[in-house]
Amino acid sequence: MTEGIGMIRKALSGFYYVDDGSGELVSCRARGKFRHKKITPLVGDRVKFTRLSDGSGALDEILPRKNQFQRPAVANIDQLVIIVSGAIPVTEPFLIDRVAAIADSKEHCDCLICINKCDLEPGDELYKIYTAAGFPTIRVSATTGEGIDTLRAAISEKVSAFTGNSGVGKSSILNALSPSFHLQVGEVSEKLGRGRHTTRHVELYRLETDAVVADTPGFSSFDTERMELLRKEELELAFREFRPYLGACQFVGCSHVKEKGCAILAALREGKIMPSRHASYIRLWEQVKDLREWELEKHRKG
């Protein structure tokens, strides 16, 4: 038996596939202490493991994480790339804002908005909303190749996680970035206006530009309700365009919902904050305003 250090590249059915730099993945099981301590290894984790005599491995320890996410279930990500669409299935801004708020609350994690299917629908409204909010925003088409080189440069030499609602084309974009992947691509139901889940697990892929990208299962509106909740004190900081106005409200502890003398609401009226972004903030505020700490912890643990 030999000890090693590597990164979990794939998690599937209780097995963790670790890249130790040798060119092949080691199939590992987590030791019992992980279950007893209720610790779940995540794709992206740097781990210590023991290679067993039969070639498989056992996870011994998870090295310190710089960040972690519940949905998608990844760790140590440099940037979250939210894939969206103005064509079927049209992405609701709240879905984007829910994920972006979590990313913006994480240290050492950037957020990039990628509007796919721009050959079918340019996504002008989504582009306007998120560029105004200060997010780097790219328009691409996995079908025609438009914008793919720009996206490739944006993820170069970084560990990124692709996420978004089902059917927006996460796997299609990965195939366009590196055709050798041959990832399964699902069809979108025009009747239902949503895609089918073709990605069933989280997996990291290495591109030629030294980029590492996680393809993750698509989410639905229901899934966003199960995502981690931010404390109400954290929420205002998770909306980046609010930050210049924080501390300028007339009253301490302003919730930025309907208070008199609120600097955020003044910026909203002046067109400096997009209405859909503030509407998403209110929706998230309503979810957490009355929750106690133990209820937040219970939600985080699922």
From TrEMBL:
Coarse class of the protein's main subcellular location: cytoplasm
List of residues binding GTP: N116, K117, C118, D119, G164, N165, S166, G167, V168, G169, K170, S171, S172
Enzyme class label: hydrolase
Record-listed Zn(2+) binding positions: C249, C254, H256, C262
GO cellular component, one term: cytoplasm
The keyword Cell membrane is assigned to this record: no
All residue ranges annotated as the EngC GTPase domain in the record: 75-220
Keywords assigned: Cytoplasm, GTP-binding, Hydrolase, Metal-binding, Nucleotide-binding, Ribosome biogenesis, RNA-binding, rRNA-binding, Zinc
EC number assigned by the record: 3.6.1.-
Binding note for cofactor: Binds 1 zinc ion per subunit.
Subcellular localization: Cytoplasm
GO molecular function, one term: rRNA binding
GO BP term, pick one: ribosomal small subunit biogenesis
Organism superkingdom: Bacteria
InterPro entries: G_CP_dom, NA-bd_OB-fold, P-loop_NTPase, Ribosome_biogen_GTPase_RsgA, RsgA_GTPase_dom, RsgA_N
UniProt domain CP-type G: residue ranges: 66-222
Subunit structure: Monomer. Associates with 30S ribosomal subunit, binds 16S rRNA.
Name of protein: Small ribosomal subunit biogenesis GTPase RsgA
Gene that produces this protein: rsgA
